[in-house]
Amino acid sequence: MKLDLTDRSLAVYEALASPVRLHILRLLAEQPMNVKELAAAVGLTSAIMTMHVRKLNAAGLITTEMAPGKSGLQKICSLAVTGAEIEFLTGGAPARKSHRLEIPIGHYSDFRIEPTCGLATVEKMIGHFDDPRYFWDQERIHAAILWFGKGFIEYKTPNFLLSSQEPKELTLTMEIASEAPGTNDHYPSDHTFTLNGVKLGTWTSPGDYGDARGKYTPAWWPRQINQYGLLKQLRITGEGTFIDGTKLSGITLRDVDIRRPQWTIRLSVEEDAVHQGGLTLFGKGFGNYNEHLVVELFYEQANTISAARES
User: Fold this and answer.
1) Which of 87, 88, 199, 216 is buried deepest, with most CB atoms within 10 A?
2) What does the pLDDT look like over 124-158, one tens digit per residue?
3) 3-state secondary structure string, the chain?
């Protein structure tokens, strides 16, 4: 997991600012445990433990899933990351150079989706629920949230990399969740990420969150449907593709033709997905992070690379 000094990482810092939650992470580093087991190990009630688990889950530090137990369903908690890296300037070290692009949620270039589906601006719904035709409505460029049950949404973005710049890492940051009828914290969905026609890998979203209103979700938004998602960062390097530090695949920058003048990014719930629980994207004005999709390409100048080799 990569962290920085912006509000995007605040949920993680808040989740870690608790001796109880640090204890929970140490326990889960050894093995997955259910809520009752965690509560007993820490010496808390199951109700209070559930609140701590929810905080860690929303920060992307753990995942939860429902599984059969001796007396009915039980919530199994597992560690979602193996480590974290914080990026900030120290000792006068220069910041990494990058080309950063923000893509509003409604600026997609293509889609093929199946209900349930819909989209909205920060002020109103666009069209009607579960009618894919409204995804071409002229108001869609102002959309700040969208969701669909199966299919894909696709974005195109320019590549401003120069011939003198050597690409090192491409990141895609997004607030994302499943799409359940109403909401359901335990509604897994396999989200597949594709760049320039190359499948990068699949991450399973744990659920569709509605236990609390999203920090930036408008007051008019119905309380019984999607409120916020999880902030996830997809990272492509020379070593492979990662999501929050966990390796998804061996696909590298070279494999995705990173120097092409235009990139095509696809987010999908595939026909053959094991968990077809839909996909929800949150943009500025919705959810907990108040951000568009962010694409950032980090690079080194050719003269910097040459100097490093000579030394």
Assistant:
1) 216
2) 999 999 999 999 999 999 999 999 999 999 999 99
3) CEECCCHHHHHHHHHHCCHHHHHHHHHHHHCCEEHHHHHHHHCCCHHHHHHHHHHHHHCCCEEEEEEEECCEEEEEEEECCCCCEECCCCCCCCCCEEEEEEECCCCCCEEEEEEEEEEECCCCECCCCCCHHHHHCHHHHHCCEEEEEEEEEEEEEECCCCCCEEEEEEEEEEEEECCCCCCECCCCEEEEEEECCEEEEEEEECCEECCCCCCCCCCCCCCCCCCECEEEEEEECCCCEEECCEEEECCCCHHHCCCCCEEEEEEEECCCCCCCCCEEEECCCCCCCCCCEEEEEEEEEHHHHHHHHHC
Could you tell me if 168 and 238 are in contact, meaning their C-beta atoms sit under 8 angstroms apart? yes
- Please tell me whether residue 4 adopts helix, strand or coil conformation: coil
Whole-model pTM over 0.85? no
